[in-house]
Write a structure and sequence with these properties.
By secondary structure, this protein is mainly alpha-helical. The chain is 92% helix and 0% strand. It is built from 2 helices and no strands. The model has no long low-confidence stretch (mean pLDDT 91).
């Protein structure tokens, strides 16, 4: 869980800095970078959530059946 918290903090900082750079420079590549970062972060969080559900329910349930 510590790694996920660190990941969320780093992604938040990256998004804020990208938004700030867009405001100061009006260069759209910072918005594109922020959007790609956000999509990657959401995808990675979904993968972690899927692994958590798999561990929590499927593997525990399988152990009960054996």
């Amino acid at each position: 869980m510590l790694i996920l918290r660190l990941f969320i903090v780093l992604v938040t900082l990256l998004l804020v800095l990208s938004g700030g750079m867009y405001i100061f420079t009006r260069n759209r590549r910072y918005l594109v970078f922020a959007w790609q970062t956000l999509r990657f972060a959401v995808l990675l969080l979904l993968v972690f959530a899927l692994l958590f559900v798999l561990e929590r329910y499927v593997l525990v349930g399988w152990r009960i059946l054996l």
